[in-house]
Write a structure and sequence with these properties.
Blueprint lengths: L24 H32 L2 H12 L1 H4 L1 H10 L2 H25 L4 H25 L9 H30 L2 H19 L15 H14 L1 H17 L6 H8 L3 H24 L4 H17 L1 H5 L4 H29 L5 H27 L4 H19 L3 H9 L11
Helix pairs in contact: 1-2, 1-7, 1-8, 1-12, 2-6, 2-16, 4-6, 4-9, 4-16, 5-6, 5-8, 6-16, 7-8, 7-12, 7-15, 9-16, 10-15, 10-16, 10-17, 11-12, 12-15, 13-15, 13-17, 13-18
Length: 428
């Protein structure tokens, strides 16, 4: 629960409409921290992915390192969700940002000294992924404490906009280094981004924690998030559908190096530009979502964006030149970011604050584990079949999943009327 004020001190800046939540000073600081941390994360995905591909000439290795960066969300997040409810969420964020500052410095030094090896990058990816896995539930649980209830959707959308828009900023920032200077500079720049996130987090005045039953064991408190989610039909349906979305449409990072080299003949800079286009599309769509107010509109958008998310990979998969690939990547980013922003908003809205960190951790376990495994599988497949075929088949399967999802009672109600019938959520 918030320890200071439910209505944090407003910023000196005047914000309204799509940016209303930024009028609250503490949210503005968290937004900045989320943006720079996201820029570091996406820049790292590009720089590390291309480095692994050039060292190994194997998409499987790229998939393995991506898997190592994502799989901690399966093992670490249940505990980090507990941390986000047990301790001050600002402190959890600050510690994790500090760990990633050190991680990127070590990575940059290894590359500078010529000691980088694929297996060593895999080990460091585990460190990076563990810190990220602990960071996300704390940030997600903190957002609703920094703005009034009427602005929760706007705040979550803007925070997601920071994360998604940083897909554009992070790769854009390292593009000159990838093309000319040397990739080690990208890792040092990532440390700088995380340093900004750390400073902004330390400036947040609103303290917030969840509610932990101290009479129960650590294991019981950690399990509470799983129990609550699986006993609440609307949460269960949302998370399971998102599992398919992340596995089938969003786990494409391990495909991009081989796609850039073999299909587009664009090398590392092509990989960078594709990720920037994903970010540009993401940012545009999330800004649109931030202005949505009606529940019926949210529900219909959720359905339509899910269907489009399954169709847009075909554009990238069929691209024969870089401009077409960039259009496809922007369309993918827009549909995926819109869908995930609405999902995240719904989960935060129907979950009580006392258990929000742990439910957020469960959510992260599902999507992180799925994306880790899917990236590993896609990297292996891209070494034996065309990467574009992987994109086409996976997208088509998700369209089928979305059509089947209309038979689920909870999801059908969301598609027709939003969350009007689900707030607050009731467990079975």
């Amino acid at each position: 629960m918030p320890m200071f004020s439910n209505d944090p001190i407003q910023s000196h800046r005047k914000w309204s409409g799509h940016f209303a939540a930024l009028a609250y000073s503490d949210f503005e600081k968290l937004w900045t921290a989320s943006f720079t941390a996201g820029a570091a994360a996406w820049a790292l995905i590009v720089a590390r992915g291309w480095l692994v591909y050039t060292l190994s000439d194997s998409s499987l290795w790229v998939g393995a390192v991506t898997f190592a960066a994502m799989v901690p969300r399966v093992f670490v997040t249940p505990f980090s969700g507990y941390l986000a409810d047990r301790f001050d969420r600002r402190t959890v964020l600050a510690v994790m940002f500090s760990l990633n500052i050190g991680h990127n410095l070590v990575l940059g030094v290894l590359v500078l000294l010529g000691h980088a090896e694929p297996w060593l990058l895999l080990v460091l990816a585990l460190v990076n992924g563990s810190a990220r896995a602990a960071q996300m539930p704390a940030a997600g649980a903190l957002v609703p404490n920094l703005v009034p209830p009427r602005l929760i959707l706007n705040a979550i959308a803007l925070n997601q906009g920071a994360v998604q828009g940083s897909r554009l900023a992070g790769p854009a920032a390292i593009a000159p280094m990838v093309a000319t200077i040397g990739i080690e500079g990208a890792f040092f720049l990532c440390s700088g981004f995380y340093a900004v996130s750390l400073v902004q987090t330390l400036r947040i005045r609103t303290s917030s924690t969840g509610e932990i039953d101290r009479r129960q064991s650590l294991t019981s408190n950690m399990a509470a998030g799983f129990v609550y989610m699986y006993r609440t039909p609307v949460l269960r349906s949302l998370v399971l559908l998102t599992l398919f979305h992340c596995g089938l449409t969003m786990s494409f990072e391990s495909l991009l190096p081989v796609l850039s080299r073999q299909q587009l003949n664009a090398e590392g800079i092509g990989f960078t530009y594709i990720m920037m286009s994903v970010g540009a599309g993401s940012l545009l769509m999330v800004l649109v979502i931030a202005g949505v107010r009606g529940e019926v509109t949210k529900g219909r958008l959720f359905l339509y964006l899910g269907l489009v998310s399954g169709l847009t990979p075909a554009i990238l998969g069929m691209a024969t030149n870089l401009p077409m690939a960039l259009i496809g990547a922007a369309c993918m980013g827009a549909s995926q970011a819109g869908y995930m922003t609405l999902t995240h908003t719904m989960i935060q809205t129907v979950t009580p604050d006392g258990i929000r960190g742990r439910v957020g951790g469960v959510y992260s376990v599902h999507i992180g584990g799925t994306m880790a495994l899917a990236n590993l599988a896609n990297g292996g497949l891209a070494d034996v079949i065309d990467a574009q075929l992987v994109l086409l088949v996976a997208g088509a399967v998700f369209v089928g999943v979305m059509l089947v999802s209309t038979r689920d009672i909870s999801l059908r109600r969301i598609y027709s009327s939003g969350l009007q019938r689900f707030a607050p959520a009731a467990a079975d």
